[in-house]
Each structure stands twice: as structure tokens, then as C-alpha cells.
């Protein structure tokens, strides 16, 4: 089987990335060269990356189109390509084959991203239209367990939604307020190791709140800040939902 190499920062994993990786997988075994945090800062500026290399590597390894991920700290992946000796280098974007690093080591194929799907365009759209991503009013932060659903003593899959409360949350969302949901699920079981807790519970929780129909802008494992903080241990959530 041919070894297919591609590389990038993969800071905000989006459809364009997935289409690239899917194409690579159709050609052979996919090895992704991932820019380290220091490498990303050199390329993108001091405010990048948004996600540390451990998280970016985890996301890539979770993709069914990726067989291996190797982090490199150099400005380019040339040394890594030279070591791997891949059969083909696939590069996304509007490059010319002769411009791609490693073209003297392996054949190069250019994959054109789907128009509009790039980290840069996503960030620019967010700057122009922040209301697309968050509300324009106040920020309401809701605990999930014990506030928007029943307490289950750790058996989260068996939680039952509080439908009347969810209806009020959705009304606040429709009125233009930002809705943030948070949970501490898994923190006790993992001795407050948030990355492990996210791996265990984030996807399940997201699927659960989507199935309950809770409109929200963000789901966070931990305790964020906001204008209004409603949970079963802070503000009296019963009084809040009674009004």
C-alpha cells in the first residue's frame, strides 16, 4: 500500500480538512505531519494555535481517514518527509507542485479545498458576523445535571430532560441571548483530568442535549463565566425557572 503524506496546522478542523484527508485515504495509507505549537506560532502569529498540539493530534487520530500523525517543530516538514520517504505528497490549496516542500523526494498532488472552507475564512466570517456564532444580548450559563435534566448519580445516559426549563432556555436563545451549557461530567472519575473527561463524556453529552432540543451556542466541560449563572448549587435555579 502506498504511503500518502499531507501536513498542516489543523487548528480548527473543518470540512475542507476532512475532504482532503478522505481523498488521501482513497490513495493509500495516510500519514499527517502536524505543526507543533511553536511551529504554528511562527507561521500564524502569537495568538495561534487556538488548540494545543495534543488536542489537534487527538482530533486527527480520531478521524477514520488518518492512519498516523507525526508532530514536527521545524518551519517545514522537509526533514520528516525525507525520513518517511512517502510515495505521494498531497497538499491542499492553490499551490503549484514545484512550490510544495518535498517535491524533490516524492510526487506531489494538489487537492483543491471546497470553496469557503478554510480556517482563515471561518475566522474572517466570525469577525464580520459574530451573531452567527453567539447571541447579541446577555450571556446565560446553565449547568446541565440537576438544572436542565434530572440528577442520576453518575448514570448520565439515564438523565431525563426538564422540558419546561428547556423551553425557557430556548426562548432566551431566540431572543438573542448567548446560551452556554456546562457540565463537570467525568471530572471526578478522571481525577479532574479534563482531557480524559472530554474524551469520555463530551460527545455523549452533546448528542444528549441535541436530542433534548436545547438551543445553545457552546457546550463546555468546566465552569465558564457569564452574566447569569444558573445551576443547582449556585443561583437558586428553582426561582429562576419559576419566573
Q: Can you walk me through this structure?
A:
26% of the residues are buried. This protein has helices at residues 15-25, 37-44, 53-61, 78-84, 119-128, 163-174, 194-212, 237-242; strands at residues 3-8, 29-35, 68-72, 88-92, 107-111, 139-143, 178-183, 218-221, 228-231, 235-236. The termini are far apart. Strands 3-2-1-4-5 form a five-stranded parallel β-sheet. A five-stranded parallel β-sheet has the order 8-7-6-9-10. The protein is an alpha/beta fold. The protein is built from eight helices and ten strands. The protein is elongated and about 70 Å long. The longest helix is centred in the C-terminal third of the chain and has 19 residues, at 194-212.
As a percent range, the share of helical residues equals: 25-40%
Q: Give a count of the beta strands, DSSP E runs of length 2 or more.
A: 10
CATH topology of the largest domain: Rossmann fold
Mean of all residue-level pLDDT scores: 83
What is this structure's SSE topology?
Blueprint: E1 3-8, H1 15-25, E2 29-35, H2 37-44, H3 53-61, E3 68-72, H4 78-84, E4 88-92, E5 107-111, H5 119-128, E6 139-143, H6 163-174, E7 178-183, H7 194-212, E8 218-221, E9 228-231, E10 235-236, H8 237-242
Parallel strand pairs: 1-2, 1-4, 2-3, 4-5, 6-7, 6-9, 7-8, 9-10
Write a brief caption for the model.
The chain is an alpha/beta fold. Helix content is 34%, strand content 20%.
List keywords for this structure.
Rossmann fold, alpha/beta, 8 helices, five-stranded parallel sheet, single chain, 20% strand, 243 residues, 2 domains
